[in-house]
Amino acid sequence: MGEFAKTLLECAAGRWTPRTRMEVWEWAEGHVVLSPRLSRFPGPLSLTHTPYMRGEWSPLWAYRRYQHIDNIWAAQTGKTMMLAITVLYDTEVDPGPGMIVYPDKVTAQRRSRRYLMPIIESSIPQLIPDASECFQILEYNLVPCSWVLAWAGSPSVLAGEPVKHLKLDEEAKFQGHTEAEADPKRLAMRRLISFGEFANAFSCTTPSLAHHPGWRDWKGSTQCQYQVQCPRCGTWQTMYFSREDRRWFEPESGDAWEGGIRWDRDPALTLEQRIASAYYLCENQACAMHWSSALRDELVAKGRWVARNPKAGKYASHLASWNAKWVKFSEVIERWLASYKDENARHDFLNSDCAVPYEVMGKQADSNELRKHILKGYHCNTIHEDVAAVVLTADIHDDHIRYRVRGWAPDLTSWGIEEGQMPPYFAALDNLLGSRTYRGPDGAPVPIHYAIVDSGFRTDEVYQLCLRWAGRVWPCRGVSYLRELVQYSRQYVQSDPQRGCPLGGAMVLINANDARWKDLLFARWEVQPGASGAWYVEEEASKEYFEQLTGETKVEEKTPSGHPKFVWRQTHDNHALDCEKMQMIATMAFQIAALRPPRAKQVQGPQRDNVNPWTGRDIGQS
Q: Nearest-CA neighbor of 539 among 365, 366, 377, 372?
């Protein structure tokens, strides 16, 4: 062999090294170094805190075996760290041009400055060129290869030069494609074509909706899930929250499954005590062992990944938040309970904790389901013995007035008393307020105590009605800009007989967050009969009444900037729904929960003349 050939081989031996046979997670624990800027555990990386990144069928195992890898993980489970590991691995072990795509430019800049640049500096400083202009926020020109940071709203960047390695961070939040351009993910995937079988795509995302990027790739993939083994019965199982999230993975399991994160529902316990009682219930009914968060940590450390469809050509994994050791069962339950009456919180819980798509469920009422609230044997125009206040609400229109009368107990259980439609004359409302009475439990007549009237239409006439019944009838209007449920404002009306306003004076105007009160009404319909806060309907309620209760649907729409928002859209007449919504508002405006229960009042003996029979307070009391 000639001298030139020997010299060439010696130089090549010094420059080229065989590709490592280590798995990616093994390589990471030997080469990745965490900066104190990134982690509370600085120094060489240890995956003991995230054991689900190790092992066969884990995402870092699949990285050397699949070209397309999608990871649908809950928030705060280590997605960003896992993506950064693949960037470091590609740079040192399998270099080639790469691109990382974020939902928007701000996120790209923040992740680069606060995460990627520090971990590159601490893990592979020898691969950073001396020239500072080579290591910029949105472009890393490293010694072996270059990385470009792009975002979903930048088609010119996404459609640029070919790449070998593609990373997609939070792709479920990608927005901004138009008819002239493909959606951001497909646009970015085109850049892999030139590298053929040597290219790969790795994505990490928290899901949003079923048709958004991320979850739509789950079907047809390997569908890998993390399992733990019960220490008592030995059953291997994926930890689900409840049937709410399990149905996405076991649609044919029916109601036989009993497991998930549970808590003590004893009504004698405080909310804090119920949250603190959270545990995980083994799905094996013969075992039914309760796992604490501490025991969960031990089980996750010994867990395994299982592929439901191992022959699929694309890899996808799913991981819920409670697999992470820093997420306690009690925290999960606290977030779930907070989502009961807040649809946006429910959306966030399903996405960020359960890592499943959100669906608008229960936001268009079913009239047949609502009929289940009819109380057998309870008839209109009668007052239940627990009623402390009778409330009228009216929805005003040009050709009619829709009204609803309900009786309320202090625990916010309510009974329908009367519903109907009257001619569009306010004299009819005056007559209802002035002379209408209902049969009380002892046979005595009971009048309407309070009323709320919608002032969004025929406002002057509504204000005149409220002035005629000052303190007893309040105007109300729905607004969309409020952060709180209600806002009270002082409304002054000037007398103007020529304009049909003979009365003048001040009144309280209720400004109500229309969307949130509808959410609360729909939540009230979920309360089971017999429970505190139940919502009952009289037997004579009309078919039209039930149909109007289904007159609106809550849907997801996009803001001009492309972000999702939830709005109520009217599908047909919704006048009865508006009346029932104002009934809910009345519970806060008139402080129904502070009223004394009628039965408790009767126990105290004869009624005194100087005591308000509905509040139990002395009339002269301040």
A: 377
The tokens describing 620, both together, are 């002269």
∠ CA 610-612-615, nearest 5°, is: 145
User: Would you state the pLDDT for residue 604?
Assistant: 46
The C-alpha angle 272, 208, 570, rounded to 5 degrees, equals 90
Residue pair 280/230 in contact (Cβ under 8 Å)? The answer is no
Residue ranges of alpha helices (H) inside 228-384 are: 243-246, 271-276, 293-301, 329-338, 343-352, 367-370
Task: Spell out a b/e string for 282-319, using b for 16 or more CB atoms within 10 Å of the CB, else e.
Answer: bbbeeeeeebebebbbebbeebbbbbeeeebebbbbbb
The helix/strand/coil state of 343 is: helix
> Residue 549's closest CA among 562, 560, 535, 561?
535
Domains and their CATH numbers in the chain:
21-217 (3.40.50.300), 228-312+321-352 (no CATH), 380-588 (3.30.420)
Q: Which two tokens stand for residue 518?
A: 């509808």
Q: What is the pLDDT of residues 334-366, one digit of tens each?
A: 998 888 667 788 889 999 999 998 875 445 677
Full-model pTM: 0.61
Per residue in 132-146, pLDDT (tens digit) is: 888 999 999 999 999
pLDDT value for 545:
92
- In angstroms, the CA 195 to CA 98 distance is 11
How many other C-beta atoms lie within 10 A of the C-beta of residue 109?
15
